[in-house]
Amino acid sequence: MATQVEARTYKNYIDGQWVDSTTGETFPNINPATGEVLGYFPKSGKADIDRAVAAAQRAFARWRAVPAPRRAEILFRAGELLVQRKEEYARGMSLEMGKVLKEARGDVQEAIDMTYFMAGEGRRLYGHTTPSELPDKLCLTFRMPIGVVAAITPWNFPMAIPSWKLMPALIAGNTVVFKPSTWTPQSAYNLIAVLEEAGLPPGVVNLVFEREVGVSQYLVEHPGVSLVSFTGSTATGTAIATICARQNKRYSLELGGKNAVIVLADADLDLAMDGIVWSAFGTTGQRCTAASRIIVERPLVEEVQRRLVERARALRLGSGVDPQTDVGPVINEEQLKKIRGYMDIGRAEGARLLCGGEIARDGDLGRGYFFQPTVFADVRPDMRIAQEEIFGPVTDIIPVDSPEEAVRVNNATPYGLVTSVFTRDVTKAMRAVEGITTGLVYVNAGTIGAEVHLPFGGTRNTGNGHREGGIGALDVFTEWKTVYIDYSGRLQKAQIDVA
Ligand code: UN1
Asked: Which atom of ligand 1 is nearest to the CA of 449?
């Protein structure tokens, strides 16, 4: 029998020190597959936020003065440490979050990719030089850091999403107060431990765990915070935007999705089915990129339904660290209940449940939060199950009569993150790409699979128009300084001295 290791108690990281929270209280980190306690993390209060923000403010003056290529060296070292510890960190993530090990490795890999990518930016951070309208005058731009960034992140990508915020913030010379989801604190701890070990100076990144919404709100409202970067629900994002707007504070939001796979009548169905299964049930549907709508041209509807039910029923539920598992648990009881609630909503709206629909309780599954992979058929585009983000292993089949209708239905939700389209016809593919109004489009691939060096984000309620990833991420974490240098020796007036 395996010996039960006593769960360790972790600390906040403020001003380069691992410290207890001022409340003295902790919360347990729970394995959603088994209910086992993996560790205890501090419950922080407003005083901890004050200390973290003050440390970040002090560090800002020093950090912004470090040349960006030097800042990059620290990020490169952090990337190397993540490579060395990929397996250990992936396992820890799988235990606390539930995603299967190979996906947890992908999550750590995404953080590695982002760390190296942004480290590379340390020797670029390009601005512009451009001619002046006047002689003997030089015009150029520099990127400036903004100040203290509050990074508030969700549990579904416990290391990748924090890296999307921290790495561009840091390379640009900002300092950070990081408030990770309390459902996945271990991965946040691991990421910060690596940055510390890589040589990040005290105060540049501060990590505060908390469980009270009021404490997060206090961080958002804190006058010492200049930018809030948030990934999570649209409701919380809107609340953050409202606070920030009142304070004229910068904010960047990455919110929900109601993504679709479009299957046109000429699609390679074997390929499409692989894409659908991965996109609908990968990460137990808990991705903002998950495909919770399958929009199918009518001639293929019966066949897609039949194959999808067969594939969904064959998926093995279990702990993410078990190599036999295809689909892990959902994160917690609240999510489980929310997903369960959508079953009644879907049925009441007239959708037909083809498979799943229940909390899974067989054997050991009863110890955790498992939901059966679920497929609804006969779904109309305006049903709530086709409009609202469910964030679980649930997908809808929506029949349509033409590629044009498929694109119209795809675009008609409050969200706009990802669409994928399966077709063998390049003209149909390009027409769809043109007509689709989501921030990401895939042709002949699922809705999952964004790479860090390209812009990531969505239209409509999916965000506020910003993009993470790619060099565009730097636009969120920097402001432009435009400099005019006049070496004419006389006072030249733009727009006036035109003749
Ligand atoms: C998210 O679901 O919040 O493309 C991020 C993907 C991943 C990122 C997902 N690379 O699904």
From this structure: 4
- The reply to whether 435 and 477 lie within a common domain is no
Residues 345 and 475 in one domain: no
Pair 119, 170: CB distance under 8 Å: no
> Based on the structure, what is the number of domains in the chain?
2
213 pLDDT above the threshold of 90: no
- Which tops the pLDDT comparison, 27 or 498? 27
Query: Exposure string (b/e) for 173-190, b if CB count within 10 Å is 16 or more?
Result: bbbbbbbbbbbbbbbbbb
Q: Is residue 499 part of a domain?
A: no
Sorting pLDDT into bands at 50, 70 and 90, what band is 2? very low
The DSSP code sequence of 405-433 is HHHHHHH-SS--SEEEEE-S-HHHHHHHH
Same domain, 367 and 406: yes
Testing ligand 1's pocket by substitution, the residue of 152, 259, 418, 456 carrying the most ligand atoms inside 8 A of its CB is 456
CATH number at residue 45: 3.40.605.10
Active-site residue, from 110, 121, 196, 254: 254
- The catalytic residue among 103, 210, 288, 389 is 288
Q: What is the CATH number of the domain that holds 276?
A: 3.40.309.10
358 as an active site residue: the answer is no
Per the document, the length of the chain is: 499
What SS3 state is found at 264? coil
The pTM of the full predicted model, rounded to 2 decimals, is 0.97
